[in-house]
Amino acid sequence: MYIYQYPLSIQFPPALPSKMPSPINIGIIGCGEVAQVVHIPTLTFLPGLYKITYLCDISPATVSHAASKTPSQEPIHTTQDAEELCSSQSVDAVFILGPDEFHAEHALLALKHDKHVFVEKPVTLTKRDALAIAEGEKHSKGRVMVGYMRRYAAVVDDAIAEIGGRENIIYARVRDIIGPNSTFVGQSGTFPRRFSDYKPEDISEWAGRAMDMASEELSGCGAQVTEQSIELYRGLTGRKTVLTEGRLGSHDLSLMREILGMPVRENPTLGASLRMPVWNVLFNYGHFTVLYESGFHKIPIFDAHIEVYSENKSVLIKYDTPYVKGLPVTMTVRENVDGKFVERFVRNSYEDPYTLELKSFYSAVREGGKIKTDVSDALEDFELFGMIMKNWKE
């Protein structure tokens, strides 16, 4: 009789840990598009790490719809009162996904109740409010992560290693010119819905805050305050205007900081064309320049990438829309190897940046891990906004 013996090199799966991870109970403030398309599905796909227990939105229809899309063995608590959610014992961490104008108010409320905070970019619309959140975090048991998901893409660290240091760079391009966001949302398979049962006074307060906060920040950096400059500032921070589709300006600039650092402080921009709907800025990094170009059009395409050049190599990171889950972030390396042109295409993971971001947040909350995109990091965006808006001319 022949008895098969396993080769010694075979690798069996590791045994499951005797103690399974403890899920973080999540309360969500703001149940609109990004919650329905991105965060509720992603949190649901990580049941060992997260459990959604509470939902809040000023629109009764929106919060009801979001609850219906949230699978749970227990009833989901719903409310229109952020204080109720933040004070609940059934919430460990608060996801702040509502309008940018209310980020600071809700973050400070969560920190007051010692909750951990995940706040979508931008952390807020004014540097003053961002500093207030940083101060609130010092007096809370909670920690704050800002949702710059692009920086958690698996390929980013590989790209930094390929570049090999800022001293090697001779030029870089940062580009994000995209078509209608509704195109990508409509093909996401998440079937989000928008409702109009807002109170008129809520819409009025929202619009008023947007104007006041943008005006404050523009005045602070010495830029003219006009309807056009406010519209551009909102494009940089992440949204064109109140109740319109989101834009990705702060994602681009945050990734630029991750890979390239900050421009020189003296004479940081060498030129700019700040026209709508497409704008571009030439940043001064001393021994090299960076062209940042962003905007929107009606072609249904998502053109977002950063490419860094050295004498013998270029490194390209390319992003597709994050609203269609599972589209990979890729890296293309083109280089001179002994006089030969060599091109390498790298896709090192199908895990999307949102998933990797939430895994990092779990590590920070449960294991004390480092938060890369904290409030002090986000404050550098306001410096970049100021560098850009100083070039504004009516």
Automatic annotation (TrEMBL):
Residue intervals passing through the bilayer: none
Pfam families with a match to the protein in the record: GFO_IDH_MocA (PF01408)
Domain Gfo/Idh/MocA-like oxidoreductase N-terminal: 24-148
GO biological process, one term: NADPH regeneration
An example Gene Ontology CC term for this record: cytoplasm
InterPro entries referenced in this protein's UniProt entry, alphabetically: Gfo/Idh/MocA-like_OxRdtase_N, NAD(P)-bd_dom_sf
GO terms, molecular function: nucleotide binding; oxidoreductase activity
Protein name (Swiss-Prot/TrEMBL): Gfo/Idh/MocA-like oxidoreductase N-terminal domain-containing protein
Classification of source organism: Eukaryota, Fungi, Dikarya, Ascomycota, Pezizomycotina
